[in-house]
Design brief:
Layout lengths: L25 E3 L5 E4 L6 E6 L1 E2 L9 E6 L5 E5 L5 E7 L2 E8 L5 E9 L4 E3 L3 E2 L7 E3 L15 E4 L1 H6 L16 E3 L6 E3 L9 E3 L2 E2 L15 E2 L7 H8 L2 H10 L3 E10 L8 E4 L1 H5 L1 E2 L3 E7 L10 E4 L11 E6 L2 E5 L5 H5 L1 E3 L7 E5 L4 E3 L10 E9 L3 E2 L1 H17 L4
Parallel strand pairs: 1-16, 3-10, 4-11, 9-12
Antiparallel strand pairs: 2-13, 3-7, 5-6, 5-8, 8-9, 14-15, 16-17, 18-19, 19-29, 20-28, 21-30, 22-27, 22-29, 23-26, 23-28, 24-25
Bound molecules: 2-oxoglutaric acid.
The site of 2-oxoglutaric acid has 9 residues, from β22, β28 and β29.
């Protein structure tokens, strides 16, 4: 059993897990701008007229718009009147460039595309070399005279300044036409019922089929959080969990992956019985996974279950396709008398930390609760002595390819 410190550390056995410790759409973007349109609208548009220094239209100029956050790039070429239109742009900040050979480039590095608006970028191109760039950042008018659609946008600058309620959906109430209420989705837009609302977050529909509200919790799994946010990198690499991993592995632990696991209420699927090391393909199998409950977990919402002592078995248990997204492999002979006799269910409060060896067989039930999610963070560490097992990797890849081929997926 693993303890938290002191004398308990002497008797560590890294195989036995132990507890330590949406008229009618509201589009919400949690990263850039928050938008409340009063029409079925998900996008903004970029439009304008490119002229030369004499004010004459420039046909054939290329307009390139790159989303500063996603790097997604869109292009249009001006027509005979120098006009162009790039529709269906996700709201956000863009770098927009207008160019044509024989003219200097004109560029705006920070053009804000707002939901339901036609944003104008109408540069004047001076004669010159394309390698000369005229920076027009900040000069673009944000007034849209082309649409009668009613929208309300909260920019990230406002977002930072105004008081926020407990969820960012509360910002919908800053739009003049939005009222709160208990009926259905909880927001009435221009007097319409909440049931007519539809919510999207960064382009993903998050409207709950259960109660019409915007759900922030339908993301099932995320990997490598440490690569995208310093907070998670710090939590993984320099935190107490790292220290514990070193203690139980008995050697320096190399942080590999910080994962987010969720089982949203009603739709959270089973986590099939598996051994993490079957995915890792390392030798020796010196690795552990920490599992931190972010909310209370029990049998109803799908807490973890371990097979005590399963890390001591020879080799690996046979695994096969599970058809569970995120956990494609499950133990095919699971359910032996030994598995059943040694199953330990691990309920606990938010903050409970579990840690298991990469050979420990573990699984979790589907989330059967109609209301409670089941969110957790996973911390994967390899021991310093672990090396990629190239042969096992090749065999695994060949098996996956054969399975996907048989299922007509490749
Ligand atoms: O959270 C879950 O359901 C699965 C977690 C898991 O299998 C792991 O951390 O190794």
């Amino acid at each position: 059993m693993w303890g938290k410190g002191g004398a308990a550390m002497e008797k560590l056995d890294p195989g036995d897990p132990q507890r330590i410790g949406g008229y009618r759409l509201l589009a919400l973007s949690n990263t850039n701008a928050i938008h409340f349109p009063a029409a079925q609208e998900r996008y903004g548009a970029l439009t304008g007229t490119v002229v030369d220094s004499a004010g004459l239209p420039v046909p054939g100029a290329t307009i390139t718009a790159k989303n500063n956050q996603t790097n997604k790039t869109y292009q249009a070429v001006t027509n005979g009147e120098g006009q162009y239109l790039i529709p269906d742009l996700d709201p956000g900040r863009y770098t927009v460039v207008a160019e044509l050979s024989g003219f200097q480039k004109s560029q705006d590095d920070n053009l804000l595309i707002l939901l339901g608006r036609n944003i104008e970028f109408s540069p004047k191109l001076a004669l010159g070399n394309v390698s000369e760039v005229v920076d027009v950042t900040g000069t673009t008018p944000q007034i849209d005279v082309r649409t009668a659609t009613v929208t309300h946008n909260v920019t990230s600058e406002e977002f930072d300044r105004i008081p926020k309620a407990r969820s960012f959906q509360g910002l919908a109430l800053t739009a003049p036409s939005v009222n709160s209420g208990d009926i259905e989705g909880g927001f009435q837009v221009n007097g319409a019922s909440g049931a007519e609302n539809s919510f999207t977050v960064d382009g993903v529909v998050t409207t709950s089929l259960i109660n019409g509200k915007s759900r922030q919790d339908t993301v099932k799994q995320m990997m490598f959080l440490e690569r995208y946010d310093a907070y998670f990198a710090d939590l993984l690499k320099s935190g107490a969990v790292h220290e514990l991993a070193e203690t139980v592995l008995g050697e320096p632990a190399i942080a590999q992956n910080m994962e987010y696991f969720n089982k949203p209420p009603g739709i959270g699927k089973q986590t099939p019985p598996h051994q993490d090391g079957y995915y890792f393909k390392i030798a020796p199998p010196q690795a552990v996974t920490g599992w931190l409950a972010l909310e209370p977990v029990d049998d109803e919402n799908g807490c973890l279950n371990y097979v005590r002592g399963s890390h001591r078995g020879e080799g690996w248990r046979p695994h096969g396709r599970s058809d569970i997204l995120g956990f494609s492999q499950g133990v095919t002979d699971f359910g032996t008398p030994d598995d059943l006799a040694n199953t330990v269910t691990m309920p606990g409060q938010a903050g409970m930390l579990l840690m298991h060896h990469c050979k420990t067989v573990h699984w979790a039930s589907p989330n059967r609760s109609p209301t409670r999610s089941r969110r957790a963070l996973g911390f994967v560490f390899y021991g310093e002595s672990a090396r990629p097992d190239e042969e096992a990797r090749r065999a695994y890849q060949a098996k996956l390819d054969a399975e996907l081929k048989a299922a007509n997926k490749i």
